[in-house]
Amino acid sequence: MKWIAIRMLTGDRVKFAGLVFGVVFSTLLITQQLTIFVNLLLRGAAAVHEVPSADIWVMDPAGRTPDVTVPLPATSLQRVRGVAGVAWAAPLMRAGASVRTPDGALEPVTVVGVDDATLTGLPRTVQLGRRAALREPDAVFIDAMGARRLFGTERGALDQRLELNDRRAVVRGIVDSEPTFTNSVMLYTRYANALEFLPGSRNRLSFILVQAQAGANPFAVARQITAATGLRARVAGDFAQDGIDYIIDNTGIPINFGITVALGVIVGIAIVGLTFSLFIRDNIRQFGALKAIGVTNGTIRQMVAAQSALVALIGYGLGLALAIGFLELGRIYSDAFKGFYTPWQIPLIAAVMVACMILLTGLIALRQVLRTEPAEVFR
Amino acid sequence: MSPQLAVRVSGVTKDFAFGEERLRVLHGIDVSVRAGELTYLVGESGSGKTTLISIMAGILFPSAGAVEVFGTDLYTLSDRDLVRFRLATIGFIFQQYNLIPSLTAAENAAVPLIAAGTPREVAVAQARELLHRLNIGTQCDKLPRQLSGGQQQRVAIGRALIHAPRLVVCDEPTAALDAGSGRRVMDLLRDVALAADRAVIVVTHDNRIFDLADRILAMEDGRITHDGKHMPKDH
Ligand SMILES: Nc1ncnc2c1ncn2[C@@H]1O[C@H](COP(=O)(O)OP(=O)(O)OP(=O)(O)O)[C@@H](O)[C@H]1O
Ligand SMILES: [Mg+2]
């Protein structure tokens, strides 16, 4: 009897399409919006992920995230290096500045000053240029996206001059950096250079990156740093989470995406529910006839379940394919989607939501069928 | 030897509730339908024909009384057994055919067999054979909307007869057909559905086919007021 149920459903092209559309719509919206949401949140942790060799980030007690910094006195570095369990400690500066582009416009940038000796803090992948070129005077590396934004192409950025806070800088390399939440242009330079580029008070050290000695527990080392120096010390994983939490707490992003996802579910339920009810109403005499002939309620349940399952499977599959397709297109055509990916939990969440949706609408439809008295087909 | 009893209705009443009020539609009906006969149930609109045939066919519970079909007391069966009994023993022909629009004629006719668990190919092959006997063998692969009303009615008859039920009930089977088609449908029913141990009950308004009955039961206001081979004079 299941094939009869499927044929009843697919034979009604318009309603079948409507049902599948409802599920596709919800799946697409849920998957796509959750993907963007999660990836935007992950950008709060980009700066931490970019320096995988650092176990611990040390900052001013008032510091909160990689993007909300409070300067430290330069002497802090030596004090941290003196704490037991610290293998090495390197300075890192992250500060806002502005550059004058070749066509004269001012563009806000984030300047990252990395350790002069080890270049700790520079992204791993240098796409164009040599890593050692950062040691040249006035050298800066720019992130690939920023290079395209300021100079049109990555190659076109190489060896270009920039006015960074009215000082001369030369682009010597293009790096692949993880986009941050603000998506600003990233300029990497040596710490000593950064001090030149960013004049001001003496205290301009943003973070001290620490690697714990082999075998030492990073959490214990972090506690010891705090105890010895009074500075805030966060293990990398926690600090990455701090960056994400900051976005959650301080932006409307979770609410906005939450509303969109909820709308996706509600509109999906409305479309699928109404179409399913219409389909049942159109076929109620056929269902009634089947019941009179001697089809049991159990079989009727299986029939409606088969119809629901078919709609759910096709709609979910198409919706997921569309969501992934859109994301791929976005990645090809826009830097805004750089690094975006769909964690496996998201299709799972979408599947659960679609399943609930179909269960709800299917049960309502089933109730209509089960309530039909077989005697009504003689009227 | 007296003919076998197909249906025995004893003391059946049926009340319908209209809010607080209850309306009695059948008033203690006692009647039997014999196997081997084509029995008509006639009467004015609202006299209770559909209600009575529904109760006889096991799809509507009476308010009081009992119905036996070939010896089985229908309304003492569990819901499940009643459904099974209908599937095995009763064939239904509806005025509006109620065919499934997206199934072919042969597939529609095969539905009761499939519901009873016969494999699809076997059931459809059997349905084709039956549709040949019903003179619409060439229409087997068409959808209901591609058939005329008379052809659809034959498919519906095929569906009612495919599993060789011993009792066939029809509500106004000829109402939507022209006179000639209506008579042919009744002839077909007699040929295919009637046998010494099988019975056909037809509810009808259609005086064009009254002469084809073996027995006519007339109803008025929820009571049977006439029982005979011919229509009473005043009708
Ligand atoms: N489900 C129901 N609820 C309430 N009243 C009903 C119901 N079914 C039938 N009736 C009433 O029972 C009476 C008999 O109805 P029934 O359908 O049996 O008549 P009928 O003889 O078949 O009429 P027709 O020739 O018009 O089909 C009518 O007054 C009708 O209004
Ligand atoms: Mg009627």
TrEMBL record, chain A:
What is its membrane topology?
Multi-pass membrane protein
| Pfam families for this protein | FtsX (PF02687), MacB_PCD (PF12704)
Sorted alphabetically, the keyword list is: Cell membrane, Membrane, Transmembrane, Transmembrane helix, Transport
Gene Ontology terms: cellular component: plasma membrane
Start and end residues of each MacB-like periplasmic core domain: 49-227
Which part of the chain is the ABC3 transporter permease C-terminal domain? 260-374
Q: Write out the annotated subcellular location.
A: Cell membrane
Q: Show the InterPro entries listed in the entry.
A: ABC-4/HrtB_transporter, ABC3_permease_C, MacB_PCD
Note whether Lyase occurs among the keywords.
no
Q: Where are the transmembrane segments?
A: 16-42, 257-280, 310-332, 344-366
Q: What is this protein called?
A: FtsX-like permease family protein
Q: Which organism is it from?
A: Novosphingobium piscinae
Q: What is the lineage of its organism?
A: Bacteria, Pseudomonadati, Pseudomonadota, Alphaproteobacteria, Sphingomonadales
From TrEMBL, chain B:
Molecular function terms, GO-annotated? ATP binding; ATP hydrolysis activity; transmembrane transporter activity
Q: Which PROSITE patterns match?
A: ABC_TRANSPORTER_1 (PS00211), ABC_TRANSPORTER_2 (PS50893)
User: What Pfam family does this protein match (any one)?
Assistant: ABC_tran
Q: Which domain of life is it from?
A: Bacteria
User: What positions does the domain ABC transporter occupy?
Assistant: 7-234
What the entry lists under InterPro entries is as follows: AAA+_ATPase, ABC_transporter-like_ATP-bd, ABC_transporter-like_CS, ABC_transpr_LolD-like, MacB-like_ATP-bd, P-loop_NTPase
Keywords in alphabetical order:
ATP-binding, Nucleotide-binding, Transport
Q: Name one GO cellular component term.
A: plasma membrane
SUPFAM superfamilies in alphabetical order: P-loop containing nucleoside triphosphate hydrolases
**This chain belongs to which protein, by name?**
ABC transporter ATP-binding protein
| Organism of this sequence | Novosphingobium piscinae
